[in-house]
């Protein structure tokens, strides 16, 4: 399976993921100067406690547990990138569980850590997180709710891709 995963990762175009939550990023990625140097190897979102966190891509859970009092879930995706969801208040996922894109990974605390890694190399998630756009649409003037908007594919400025 490892060989097939590497082969697939080499043939997949750069990813453009829908963000795991609809909250602002409060702390950006800061690349470390060396492997063991300080930095911030992901982004943090300012979420309200209990916000549902969604998987940005399908994959398999390679770790689900608590490290130093903080709950994490790591999902290895078919593109070879491992997505880390941290500062989770709760999660029902266990090691080996299959995850679908958009599936609830867990709920957040008052913040959410989200990181991406290919092997031992940390990636700036902002380069892979898209912006979801909606088509302009008319809404009823009667005050009744209209049809829900149909989202267009997410676009990632840095990756230059749409998904």
Describe the fold and architecture.
The protein has 163 residues and is mostly beta strands. It is 6% helix and 36% strand. It contains 1 helix and 11 strands. It has one helix spanning 2-11, and strands spanning 25-27, 43-45, 52-54, 59-67, 70-76, 82-90, 98-99, 104-118, 121-123, 155-156, 161-162.
Oligomer: single chain
User: How much helical structure, as a percent, in the residues?
Assistant: under 10%
Using only C-alpha atoms, the radius of gyration works out to 17 Å
**If you consult CATH, what is the topology?**
Glucose Permease (Domain IIA)
> Per DSSP, what share of the residues sits in E-state strands of 2 or more residues?
35-45%
Order of helices and strands: HEEEEEEEEEEE
Low-confidence stretches: 1-13, 159-163
> Taking all residues together, what is the mean pLDDT?
84
Question: How can the largest sheet be summarized?
Answer: 9 strands, antiparallel
| DSSP summary, beta strand count | 11
């Amino acid at each position: 399976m490892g060989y097939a995963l590497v082969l697939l990762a080499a043939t997949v175009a750069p990813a453009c993921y829908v963000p795991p939550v609809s909250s602002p990023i409060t702390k950006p990625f800061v690349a470390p100067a060396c492997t063991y140097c300080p930095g911030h190897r992901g982004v943090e979102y300012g979420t309200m406690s209990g916000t549902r966190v969604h998987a940005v891509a399908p994959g398999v859970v390679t770790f689900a547990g608590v490290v130093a009092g903080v709950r994490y879930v790591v999902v290895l995706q078919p593109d070879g990138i491992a997505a880390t969801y941290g500062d989770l208040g709760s999660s029902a996922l266990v090691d080996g569980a299959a995850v679908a894109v958009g599936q609830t990974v867990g709920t957040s605390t008052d913040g959410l850590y989200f990181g991406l890694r290919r092997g031992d190399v940390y990636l700036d998630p902002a380069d892979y997180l898209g912006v979801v756009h909606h088509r302009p649409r008319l809404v009823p003037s009667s005050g009744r709710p209209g049809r829900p908007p149909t989202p267009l594919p997410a676009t990632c400025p840095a990756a230059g891709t749409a998904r």
